[in-house]
């Protein structure tokens, strides 16, 4: 009776404030589990230029299934936007090193249970930039990438390059920040974020000052949380090659990479954002519980090699090979893939 009551009631979030190490304050929402003891804690990291409210339905779903969940807006975005965005000095790397770090510290101080991160797009890369990333126990990434144009889907690469690597920096020069809302593309972005996105090359650390590069690489390699990375075949940004480029930086973690198809969800298209729509609550969202709660890969027959080497300085259009049910230990560092039950 009690469990049924908790599952039927609508879970409403509690507005919270996160204080970063540099004093910047972020706005977030804490979603407390439906009842009993939390089965775990989850931080949801948004994609670039996407307000945290986009993930609120998924956060509520996780809370209904026993998780304590924190959603938050990065500095300069959504509810964490300052009164004046022009000249604020916020950078992409700050979202990981400072903002995600503050989110983890907040959850540690206010809840208990296994600590996991769900990262969408750049949100799957940011945990490795934070000292607090070492305390994660599990990660789920969806379309994780850091926007090197050479990893974009070949058919859309030219258009995406013009949009994000030509139009965006030009508009940022004119306005002093990127007016994404004006263009109907995404949330407005601080200039530092827009420029890091526009001009980042195949090696992310080269966008850092030379003296900071070694430390950034070491932090990413020190993450030990097992990672399940999800890609979708029609995602033009979070391609298999983009996910591989991200996963290679997490050198100390057990990494699994799966490639899903729109047909797996009975759809003609999914793309970069659709998996967080609540139409997937009875499908993809339920599947993610197997990983976040039990550490089980729900798609063992959709695994691809997570670490195949691609030349780091030039784009390459490659068709991934599905490893299938008989995935080898070499394909999944640190363990044998499980069969679908």
For the sheet with most strands, the description reads: 9 strands, mixed
Tell me, what's the shape? globular
| Proportion of beta-strand residues | 5-15%
Spatial ordering of strands, largest sheet: 1-2-4-3-5-6-7-8-9
Q: What is the number of helical segments per DSSP (H or I, 4+ residues)?
A: 9
Report the helical percentage: 25-40%
| Rounded radius of gyration (Å) | 19 Å
Mean pLDDT: 88
Distance between the termini: 30 Å
The topology string of helices and strands comes to: HEEEHEHEEHHHHEHEHE
What does this structure look like?
With 341 residues, the protein is of the alpha/beta class. Helices cover 30% and strands 15% of the residues. Helix 2 links the parallel strand 3 and strand 4.
Summarize the structure.
The protein is of the alpha/beta class and 341 residues long. It contains nine helices and nine strands. Helix content is 30%, strand content 15%.
Notable traits:
disordered C terminus; 341 residues; disordered N terminus; alpha/beta; globular
């Amino acid at each position: 009776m009690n469990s049924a009551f908790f599952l039927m009631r609508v879970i409403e979030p509690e507005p919270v404030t996160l204080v970063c190490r540099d004093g910047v304050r972020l706005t977030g929402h804490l979603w407390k589990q439906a009842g009993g003891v939390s089965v775990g804690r989850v931080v949801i990291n948004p994609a670039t230029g996407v307000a945290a409210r986009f993930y609120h339905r998924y956060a509520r779903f996780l809370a209904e299934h026993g998780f304590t969940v924190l959603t938050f807006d990065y500095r300069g975005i959504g509810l964490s936007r300052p009164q004046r965005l022009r000249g604020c000095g916020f950078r992409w790397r700050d979202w990981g090193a400072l903002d995600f770090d503050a989110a983890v510290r907040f959850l540690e101080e206010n809840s208990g249970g296994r600590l996991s991160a769900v990262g969408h797009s750049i949100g799957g890369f940011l945990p490795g930039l934070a000292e607090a990333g070492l305390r994660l126990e599990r990660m789920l990434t969806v379309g994780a990438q850091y926007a090197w144009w050479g990893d974009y889907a070949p058919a859309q690469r030219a258009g995406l390059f013009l949009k994000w690597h030509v139009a965006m920096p030009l508009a940022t020069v004119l306005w002093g920040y990127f007016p994404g809302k004006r263009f109907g593309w995404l949330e407005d972005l601080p200039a530092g974020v827009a420029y890091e996105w526009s001009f980042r090359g195949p090696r992310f650390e080269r966008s850092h000052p030379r003296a900071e590069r070694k430390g950034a690489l070491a932090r990413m390699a020190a993450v030990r949380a097992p990672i399940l990375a999800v890609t979708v075949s029609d995602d033009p940004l979070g391609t298999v090659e983009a996910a591989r480029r991200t996963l290679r930086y997490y050198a100390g973690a057990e990494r699994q990479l799966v490639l899903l198809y729109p047909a797996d969800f009975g759809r003609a298209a999914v793309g970069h954002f659709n998996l967080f729509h609540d139409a997937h609550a009875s499908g993809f969202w339920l599947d993610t519980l197997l990983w976040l709660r039990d550490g089980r890969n729900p798609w063992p027959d959709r695994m691809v090699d997570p670490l195949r080497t691609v030349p780091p300085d030039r784009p390459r259009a490659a068709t991934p090979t599905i490893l299938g049910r008989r995935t080898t230990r070499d394909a999944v560092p640190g363990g044998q893939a499980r069969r679908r039950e």
